[in-house]
Amino acid sequence: MHDDPPHDRLPPPEWLSHGAPAAVLAALPGARVVGGAVRDALARRPVHDVDVAVALPPEEAARLLRERGIKVFETGLAHGTVTAVLDHQPVEVTSLRRDLVTDGRHAEVAWSTDWREDAARRDFTINALSMDASGALWDYFGGRRDLAAGRVRFVGDPATRLAEDYLRVLRFFRFQARYGTGAPDAAAIQAIRDAVPGLARLSVERVWMELKRLLQAPEPLEALALMRQTGVLPAILPEADSTDALARLLAARAPAEPLLRLAALLRPGTEAAALARRLRFSTAEAARLRGLLDASLRPAPELDGASLRRWLAEAPADLPADLAWMAEAADGQDRAALRHRIDTTPRPVFPLQGRDALAAGLAPGPAMGQALAAVRAWWLAGGCEADAAACRAALLALQSNGPA
């Protein structure tokens, strides 16, 4: 097994001393934490997911974990990955690998015992770091230095890394948005320009996954501008408009919610259904985007009490606050006071249902639906203040005397 001495030794992070990560490392001789957890620990950022690598075949790693009483799920055995779970905390464990064949989207791999070889197949230097339970740090490609400098740099030749997996084009911008400062790496940018045609080979699900993660970054504007300059944004999201509306959202401290930010990025008139089909949104995502892009639903900057209640009653139940954000992004008029009123005003709910119409003597059918709709229109016109008793009275009056 090729195993260089560590390049540094640090006090081990607190999360390495207990719980599932510590148990997994203890069960697997020579295992190390790799990738994002090491990167974020060095950057003094919260560590969420812990991934472990080991110089053992996946079947052997699974056996050793089970011998320690750790549950093992064979979540990616063909790629050398199993998921260890202890006390409901998952840890992905992956065997050291080397690529045999890559096609820009998938790779055939073989197991390895060479840590440097495994690190060399990773995308960026800041993701090629590894650390053992004692705090020993391996940094084969200067990732710690790049992290401190705010530099997102490919491991080795950028064009080679991109040809192995074109999704790395999008990952570059995601990491640039979160970790990059100053001018981006020139070699990376040139390689990305050349790799744009390869984006057509990616599944739309992977594209949307990376775009969502980028849009969740605290400050995605510079990365999006760079994507436009390199031709990446037009290739994956031709519906994108200028970033002016998104900039207004960020300036107003809107939530870092990817669909909200996507909606602000799109050209006015974008057909939500077509975009949702192309990127294969879930049903919920498609419905949400459709509401966010419907300019007719957005509130004016100032609404009196009755108008606000009517608007709340008519707006999709999960969208009122976001519709106010979209209105502000579109016209630049401050709606902070309105958002506060939206948050503190109970959403009015029409108090009658079909059973109320049946109790009033209406027969099931279209006429009953029309009667309820007429009473609801009366309720809305009155500012949604009539209670159930008043609405039942209006329904009875409608039945006896015509429209309420």
TrEMBL record:
Keywords, comma-separated and alphabetical: Magnesium, Metal-binding, Nucleotide-binding, Nucleotidyltransferase, RNA-binding, Transferase, tRNA processing
Entry keyword Nucleotide-binding: yes
InterPro entries: Bact_CCA-adding_enz_type3_sf (IPR050264), NT_sf (IPR043519), PolA_pol_head_dom (IPR002646), PolyA_RNA-bd (IPR032828)
Entry-linked SUPFAM superfamilies: Nucleotidyltransferase, Poly A polymerase C-terminal region-like
Domain Poly A polymerase head: 31-153
Co-factor requirement: Mg(2+)
Domain tRNA nucleotidyltransferase/poly(A) polymerase RNA and SrmB- binding: 189-241
Pfam families for the chain: PolyA_pol (PF01743), PolyA_pol_RNAbd (PF12627)
Keyword Magnesium: yes
Superkingdom to which the source organism belongs: Bacteria
Similarity remark: Belongs to the tRNA nucleotidyltransferase/poly(A) polymerase family.
Annotated protein name in UniProt: CCA tRNA nucleotidyltransferase
Source organism (scientific name): Teichococcus aerophilus
Lineage: Bacteria, Pseudomonadati, Pseudomonadota, Alphaproteobacteria, Acetobacterales
